[in-house]
Amino acid sequence: MHSTALAPVTETKIVMSDPTALGVFGLAMVTFVAASAKMGWTSGTVYLIPWALFLGSIAQVWASSIDFKKNNYFGAIVLGAYGLFWIAVAMHWAISLGWFGAVGDKADPRQLGVACIGYFIFSLFIMVAAFEANKVFALILVMINVLLPALALTIFGINAPLFGMVAAYSELIISLLGFYCAGAVFLNSYFGRALLPLGKPFGFIRKGPAPRPAGDVHLVAPASAARP
Questions:
Q1: pLDDT at position 11, please?
Q2: Of 4, 43, 55, 88, which one is least surrounded by beta carbons within 10 A?
Q3: How would you label 212-224 residue by residue, b for 16+ Cβ within 10 Å and e otherwise?
Q4: Using an 8 Å Cβ cutoff, are 25 and 82 in contact?
């Protein structure tokens, strides 16, 4: 008999860095610039569009794609969802400014308010998970869930001065929390230890299967007992 030697199997593992800092920085930047318009520090949406496209959308969507490869479910879904949101918002602004031609009389800008309500519903689910990620992420999601309905009500024309100011301050707080979160993730990852705290999860919901109630014991009969 002739033995055939098997060729050695070589495995290549691609190590990718955590993209969270870049994705959250993109969110922080676009909300900071957008908040400047809502606060009255700047005006108009023309020069908000580049920040919405490149920081709010591309940075977050790219970070989301890396998190999918790293099996980081939370980061992949959250960064991807909000990255796509900013692409749509940028397109809304560009269309309203006439970049793609004249806007007909049938255009209804309140549809952006409807989209904000839709994102608010989804963000409630994300907030539940964020409470079990860390406290900074949890605060960001709480403020996002203040911002989105406030934006929707402003767009619908319901007490616009009040809800416009609520949207402005909540968006500013989101940006400041985002800057801190991005900086903390960057420094903590670079130095390999927690230089800036993000806060432990609240621990309201435990991951994994639900614990079996006390006294709930399932008896399994031995295989011999099943024989006639």
A1: 62
A2: 4
A3: eeeeeeeeeeeee
A4: no
17-58 pLDDT per residue, tens: 899 999 999 999 999 999 999 999 999 999 999 999 999 999
pTM more than 0.90: no
Of the CA atoms within 13 Å of residue 209, those in its CB half-sphere come to 3
Nearest alpha-carbon partner for 199 in 146, 130, 147: 130
- 205-228 pLDDT tens trace: 988 787 676 655 554 444 444 444
